[in-house]
Amino acid sequence: MKTIHLAQLFVPLLLLTPLIIYDAAMDQVMHPRFLYLSCLLSITFLLLLYTNRDKKLTINWLDIIFGSFYAINLLSILMAPNKAEALFETQKVFLTLGTYGILRVFFNDNPSRFIPFFLKAMIILSLILSGYSIKILGDIYTEFGALYHSTVYAIKGLFAHKNLLSAFLLFLLAFNVWGSIALKQIWKGLSIFNIISILSLIFLLQTRAAYLGTFIFLLTMFVGIMSSATIRQQLPIKKIALGALAVLGISVGALTVTGNIAGPFKRLTSFGQTNSVKERTILWQKSVELMKDYPLLGVGNGNWKLMYTKYSVTGLRRAETEDIQFIRPHNDYLWIGSETGFIGLLLFLGLAGLAIIALISAIRKADSAQEAIPAWSILAGILAYLVVSVFDFPRERLEHQMLWACYLALTVYMGQHFFTNRQYTLGVKAKFILIPIILLSIFTAYMGYSRLQSELIVKQMISNTQRNKWQKVKRQSLQAHTMFYNMDLLTNPLVWWEAIADFRDKKYQEANQKFQEALDIHPNSHKVFNNLGSSYYVLQDYENAEKAYRQSLVINPKYDEALGNMVRLYLRGNNPAKARTYLEQMSKESDRKKQLTQMLEQLEKS
Length: 606
Prior knowledge:
It contains 28 helices and two strands.
């Protein structure tokens, strides 16, 4: 099989990634896409081994930095309390790196044939997702009668979050701008249609991060057009202006029809006043604290969600009172820095910085709009990605990382003159590099399959908890627990579910031991500390019970369960003064508070 034929097979399969969904899973896209992409890369690397086994590979500084970033993610596993989560998140980086490496080979092998094919595939994907977005917005309007932010926020399905959908559409813009310049006839028309529809959809989806990213994208393209008289002469400026008016007209018209003309403008002017922004500010502060305390290798990849709570969840209203567990800080730079240390953050910034420099070099060498606009579009896409990463989490999702890999691979192709003096030919044949990569890809696919199977069991287990079938819960928790998967999506350790089952079965000593094991998996869970305290309480170890309850309240001072348990502990110890201190901190809506109040009043009377 020739490399170009393999490339033409790989790209459509790669671009299926954001369309993969499995309804039976708890997270319907994360593990299914992880498994799909790891299988695709494994097969592609095997075919590359067959077609390129005796070639000698050339690497450049972008490859070296990207590879080093993966290596530091691997090293960070050593620091992680939960190594299963660390390994999973690290192999997501591997999948991004693998996608980049494969595309690097394809873009440089036969670009005259491959790039038009690649752009057409991106245009088709853009059409599919634009149509999908229009449909789900139409469904929301049908259900709620308006496109308010609160109703648009209800988007589920392929992206599960309007922020992720709007960001993905934004990142597709670069390929459509390029297609509008490089392609002809119907493909040019489809590219222009996609640009208009994507910009309109981003406006309707009302996501601030995407608004800002879109502004940066358009500003970069404006600078690109205005910086060269040659480009201005070769571009249809009037048609571009008409397109901009079409975007504005479609967006405003749609919002007028759906009764929310002021919605997007309110989203912009309310920045900093919403609870979401306040929560993110607190999460950022806690992330900075993690970076200060774990500067070298961070807390371990995938472990931010387990470690930020060591500084308490005070101020995070939903975490304090609604049992919401934040699993990312909504800032990829702080996320990377806190999980992989300053070394990991510097490598990521170095990767982005080198890509920007290479694209600027390519722009300077361009002699026409046909050469300059593609480089400007990829530069605009990278800058938009970096801006969105300040407020959202494209790092989390493989479909966004797929586009990031495309950007970087295209950067190497466009900036090949820049990399000429910054590349090295390896002294070994490709097969000696590809064989360990294939083995790692197969391992990653197996891990993805194992995690998906565990998640399916956990979904059944949680259903059984709601029906109080605790023996089934215990069996399913044991089945789901593997070296690759040890906690559910809400960061509850699986052994914690076993402990709950034992506690309900009055096996208090076994429950106590398993609650302690749960803390090894999630060392800063206020729920686990509270349950550990209760297991000590029934074992009449009141001193350790108090210590565990106190630690639960250090993490979440408003946790009613732990507050009530402290009241009960002091009532039992005949200490009404301290009991009242904790009773007064309990929520007024708590049913348990009424019962404890009566018990306290009886104690005080006696």
